[in-house]
Design a protein that fits this description.
This protein is an alpha+beta fold. It has a single domain (39-152), classed as Beta Polymerase, domain 2 (2-Layer Sandwich), CATH 3.30.460.10. It has helices spanning 32-54, 84-100, 131-137, 139-142; strands at 4-8, 11-15, 22-23, 59-65, 75-81, 107-111, 116-120, 124-130, 148-152. It has a six-stranded mixed sheet with strand order 6-7-8-5-4-9. Strands 2-1-3 form a three-stranded mixed sheet, with no helix packed on it. A hairpin with a 3-residue loop joins β7 and β8. α1 (32-54) packs across α2 (84-100). The radius of gyration is 17 Å and the shape is globular. The termini are far apart. The model is unreliable at 1-30 (pLDDT under 50).
Length: 153
Amino acid sequence: MDQVAVLMAGRPVFREDAPIELVTPDNQDHTPDSLSESVAQSRDLALAIAEVIADTPAIDTQVMDIHNLTFIADYFVICSGENERQLRAISRSIVDEMAQQKVRPRVVEGDPESGWILLDFADVIVHVFDAELRAFYHLEERWSDAPVVLSIQ
């Protein structure tokens, strides 16, 4: 199977219809210094999101640094709510507060009724779970090699 790697937002995305080649936009700098600056910006965003979450009814918030383990993102922010109303309030607070800072999620998946809302801010992915689904998927265990940058109980 042939693949093409296209660098989008600093991350390779693979297609299966051509030989492997790395395509980078001319206006992006991918030196080690620029990548560490990008990770630092992602860390700042993840911590800003955690700060917003701290003012909601969320429980057990974790910020995990996954940038050395995968290319899908630099950070996970994981938190829980106790019911649909709390999940809705948590996700709405994140979206509204980040929008005031001119930062919007690229994608929002799930809904409070499903028990899992995912907010994709490119290099920061936020998981808002109900307790049952969080225990079932246990992302912290699956990503146990990722350092926990911040934990809010």
